[in-house]
UniProtKB/TrEMBL annotation:
Cited InterPro entries: GriE/MELC1_sf (IPR023199), MelC1 (IPR010928), TAT_signal (IPR006311)
Gene3D superfamilies from the UniProt entry: protein ne1242 domain like
Assigned protein family: Belongs to the melC1 family.
The name this protein goes by in its record: Tyrosinase
Alphabetic keyword roster: Copper, Signal
Keyword Metal-binding annotated: no
Keyword Signal part of the UniProt annotation: yes
Chain segments carrying region Disordered: 20-69
Segment forming the signal sequence: 1-32
Length: 126
């Protein structure tokens, strides 16, 4: 009988968990997309005459004021731009929903580009 390796043990555990309907067991560092604690860095800058800001949200994952569970808030001229992190790590906003970008700063810049000088209106949360 072959020796039980870590890989075989994890494979067997994952197969049993999948069969039982439980979350699968993965090796540490298996995938950065599966488990992230890599919050984007805060930013505060003027882009094309508009002040854009981003920072970790105080709520830490609640839907009010945190970018739909991301724990990160983005603002254009003081008005919150709702952002969301996709499963692949890209970001989208309510303004440029179909144009994913790499980071919240890029989402803010894309929103400014799309707004073309128009004011960002508050987005109703309920």
């Amino acid at each position: 009988m072959p020796e039980l390796s870590r890989r075989r043990a994890l494979t067997a555990a994952a197969a049993l968990a999948a069969a039982a309907g439980a979350p699968a067991v993965t090796a540490p560092g298996a995938s950065a997309a599966e488990h992230r604690d890599d919050s984007p860095a805060p930013f505060d800058e003027v882009y094309k005459g508009r002040r854009i800001q981003g920072r970790p949200a105080a709520g830490g994952g609640h839907h009010h004021g945190t970018g739909h569970g991301t724990g990160y808030a983005v603002f254009v001229d003081g008005v919150e731009l709702h952002v969301m992190r996709n499963a692949d790590g890209s970001w989208i906003s309510v303004v440029s929903h179909y144009d994913p970008v790499a980071a919240p700063r890029a989402a803010a810049r894309a929103a400014v580009d799309e707004l073309q000088g128009a004011a960002l209106l508050p987005f109703p949360t309920n």
